[in-house]
């Protein structure tokens, strides 16, 4: 009797204990691998985008500098051309004045004869 009572209680105890959820090490490893790959891809894409942004900023800065330099050179060339044109205009004006005075003197000389 004791034997049957002990056997029935132990079976009931075993049957009533909840079983723990069991995962295999393989599925955990696959999950970890997927997470690692996703993390690596995320970081690699992030680095690539950061690098592209930095290159874009560098190109933008170089373009700004080149544009400023070209604008400065163009402005300098424009001033130089304006100065040369002004000098030539002054020379032409002076030549015309001199020519006018010479013509007037020639006319006076001819009138005296």
UniProtKB/TrEMBL annotation:
Residues 1-21, 55-113 are annotated as: Disordered. Residues 55-64, 102-113 have a biased composition (Basic and acidic residues). It comes from the Eukaryota. Residues 1-11, 88-101 have a biased composition (Polar residues). This is Uncharacterized protein.
């Amino acid at each position: 009797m004791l034997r049957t009572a002990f056997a029935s209680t132990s079976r009931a105890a075993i049957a009533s204990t909840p079983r723990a959820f069991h995962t295999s090490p393989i599925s955990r490893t696959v999950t970890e691998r997927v997470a690692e790959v996703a993390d690596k891809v995320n970081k690699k894409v992030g680095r690539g985008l950061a690098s592209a942004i930095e290159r874009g900023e560098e190109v933008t800065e170089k373009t700004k500098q080149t544009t400023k330099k070209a604008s400065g050179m163009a402005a300098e060339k424009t001033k130089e051309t304006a100065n040369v044109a002004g000098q030539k205009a002054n020379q032409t004006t002076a030549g015309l004045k001199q020519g006018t005075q010479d013509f007037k003197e020639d006319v006076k000389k001819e009138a005296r004869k």
